[in-house]
Amino acid sequence: MADSKDFTAGVDSNAKKSPRRIVFITRRTSAQVKADTEDQMQTFPEVLFRGVVAIQVLAVVLVWISLLFNAPLEGLADPSHTPNPAKAPWYFLGLQEMLHYFPPVVAGVLAPGLVVMALIVIPYFNINIEAEGLFLKDRARRLSAFYTVAIALSIFLLAFKVYAALVPTLIMVGMMLLAAHSSPQSPSAFRRYLAARPLSYWVMTWFLFELAVLTAIGTFFRGPGWAWVWPWQGS
Amino acid sequence: MADKTKSSTPNEVVNRRQFFAKLGLGSLSIAAAGTAAFAYQYLSPNVLFEPSPVVNVGKPDRYPLDSVTLDVTTGIYIIHSQEGYFSLSAVCTHLGCLTAWKPEENRIACPCHGSKFERTGVKTEGPAPKPLPWKFISINEDGDLLVDRSIDIPPLVPKSYVRV
Amino acid sequence: MAKTGMTKTAGQYFDDLRGTRVWRSIFRSGAGSSTLHRALTIQQNVFLHLFSTKVRTRMLSFSATWYLGTLTLGTFFILVATGIPLMFYYHPSVPQAYADTKDLQFVVSSGLFLRNLHRWSAHAMVFLVFAHMFKVFYRGAYRAPREFNWVIGVILLLITLLLSYTGYLLPWDQLAYWAITVGSNIASAVPIMGNKIRFLLLGGNTVNANALLRFYVLHCMILPLTAMFFIAIHFWRIRKDGGLYSHASEPATLRAKAASGTADPKADAKEAQ
């Protein structure tokens, strides 16, 4: 192969022509073929039909709900008469509950803004990529950092009397302490599971817990004047 | 792997795949037909926010014999002739412009393309394809003339006039 | 085309149709259910070629994603399909909007059903988009190379919330009016620019006819187009990042498996995620 001179080789950077690529297979080498051995399925029909069926089930459920329950409609908008309580749509009620404790700058701008920023940067932090159990590495330093944050946050919430947010926080702190005192060799499966959870898991679960609790309180436990009511008290 | 997807002879029972395919397509067609029917019903308004086609043009003695009166806002002529009172649409049958009564020519004239009609609605010149239609005219209990612009009546026959 | 006997089934008529010149000029791939035909169905279609023609079997598992992304997209389709007909009877002016909402409920054929479906699908979409986000997070599908798709997802979350918020005002009832008043007052809490933001959002100093019109334009035109734009990017990124996340399919796992030479029990256990 190396002796034959019936071809020429060169480089052409003519942008007006479609380039042709030429592979030279020299002696004593062969192309390396990396075969993907994973099972595959055709998009049509496998993916499309599964998607269509899922959406059909969703549509059937929603149609049933729409036939049985009516969307709410109150009286004509009246700028001179504020209903009591004036509640935001349910997905904002967590925020509105926070507005009860903190000024609008904090609860309405700072907190949501920080939450969105935190969500966006999650994938760019290494500690989230490694996904190791939080207290399995560098234990002493991490434990002291954890204690500092937990105590500071609890005192902050207590000072502002945000019991609604304090209770979930304390529950999460309890779970994290349990995780800190567990290991992959712990007797119960649950403790082994907790020990393996990374930091991102704890922060996100705390956030989810808080979101659920605050939204539930805003929906069911707040009445006129944003006063505390029990759900069975009507309104 | 033998391809069992195509049907066997017409005498055999349909296989399971065909059954479900027929069932699926059948229910889909029924659903589509139902959706189309409901969509058509939805898009045809049940309530219209438009002025009523029935116009009250007042007492008959407002219109002296042999007069042709145009009511611009409702687009009709009220004409009092020997045979009685009748009403024409004032909308030119060519392209929908509002016509005007020209007493000096004894014609109803359209300003847009020059169509002219006699006071009976018959076209005498111009591109209009049809005569001006006669509209249903009646008298109510108070003695007022009522014109229903949504009902066309045959021209020049005795029952198309209102006699007082 | 094998014809057994004198009669043809509907399927055979359909296959004949698919062999005609007119059909082939539109769809090109013709009749048949071979692998090639099925691949062409995806690849030749301008909407469907957002997908790849084949996917890894692991990506189809229900327990991995609970199909939450698909369901969110489904609610979006339902919302567009119900929202556009609703626009035929709705005038975004004050107080006509309220009268129109009442008309839709009592006078228009199927109006009540459409409005209900639109409302409940909207709530469902907000719930599903949060659920989808949490599910993606907890199975670690945000990690490299999928970081940017996660960010696109957060943007879509914000667009969904904005769509729901702008739609909330449109019935112009007490619920709508005061919810938006509270919300726009929160917007004015932004330091320095807060009042300006509120003024631009409402088109004035109070929630009035200008606000309704702006929210209507945002809700029916700007935000849906933005959403569709980002949804397309979101789907494209899934494909370009190597398909839906499955731990056992990740290049790192495959390399480790190849290097160790034997099956890794930990990886197989994680595969169940």
What CATH calls the topology of the largest domain in chain B is Rieske Iron-sulfur Protein
- Please report the number of helical segments of chain A: 8
What is the strand arrangement across the widest sheet of chain B?
Answer: 1-10-9-4-3-2
Mean pLDDT of chain B: 89
For the terminal residues of chain B, how far apart are their CA atoms? 92 Å
- Which term fits the overall shape of chain B? elongated
Helix content of chain A: 40-55%
The name of the CATH architecture of the largest domain in chain B is 3-layer Sandwich
Polypeptide structure, described:
- The complex is a heterotrimer of chains A (235), B (164) and C (273).
- Chain A has 235 residues and is mainly alpha-helical.
- Chain A has helices at residues 43-68, 93-99, 104-121, 126-130, 139-159, 163-180, 189-195, 199-220, and one strand spanning 40-42.
- The longest helix of chain A is centred in the first third of the chain and has 26 residues, at 43-68.
- The relative contact order of chain A is 0.09.
- Chain B is an alpha+beta fold and 164 residues long.
- In chain B, strand 7 (116-117) and strand 8 form a beta hairpin.
- The radius of gyration of chain B is 29 Å and the shape is elongated.
- Chain C has helices at residues 10-19, 21-27, 35-43, 62-65, 68-87, 96-106, 111-138, 147-169, 174-187, 194-202, 209-240, 251-260, 265-271, and one strand spanning 54-56.
- Chains in contact: A-C, B-C.
- Chains A and C meet through strand 1, helix 1, helix 2, helix 3 and helix 8 of A and helix 3, strand 1, helix 5, helix 6 and helix 7 of C.
- Strand 1 (40-42) of chain A pairs antiparallel with strand 1 of chain C, so a sheet runs across the interface.
